[in-house]
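Long-time lurker, first post. I've been practising inverse folding by hand and with some scripts of my own, and I keep getting stuck on stretches where the structure tokens seem ambiguous. Below is the full token string for one chain I'm working on. Before anyone asks, I'm not after the true native sequence, just a reasonable design that respects the backbone. If someone could post their per-position residues I'd love to compare against what I wrote down in my notebook.
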């Protein structure tokens, strides 16, 4: 769970013992090379509701369409099926997904 000021109000976090940055899962044939490529009209993001990726996208990617899902697997499936241009989540999850679906 990512530590945020909002979450600190309701969760007693320990000292961090691991750090994970956000990563982007995109289809293999995607024209997306960086985060700015997603901040365009017509780009669709599939995100887990309440995740750090969701919070980042709402704040920073004003031009993309954001579709929210309760489970990360549902959001990942949107990218795999070509219904979304990207999915933001922690690096480890993105890497494991890519290992299983190298066409993304």
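-- Answer (accepted) --
I ran through it position by position. Result:
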């Amino acid at each position: 769970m990512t530590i945020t000021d909002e979450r600190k109000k309701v969760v007693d976090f320990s000292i961090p013992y691991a750090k994970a940055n956000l990563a982007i899962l995109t289809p293999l044939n995607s024209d997306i090379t960086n985060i700015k490529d997603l901040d365009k009209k017509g780009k669709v993001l599939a995100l887990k509701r309440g995740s750090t990726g969701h919070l980042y996208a709402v704040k920073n990617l004003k031009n993309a369409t954001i579709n929210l899902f309760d489970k990360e697997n549902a959001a990942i499936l949107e990218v795999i099926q070509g219904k979304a241009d990207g999915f933001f989540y922690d690096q480890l999850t993105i890497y494991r997904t890519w290992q299983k679906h190298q066409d993304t």
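A couple of notes from the structure itself: Residues 91-100 form the longest helix (10 residues). The helical segments are 5-8, 52-60, 72-80, 91-100. Happy to go over any region you disagree with.
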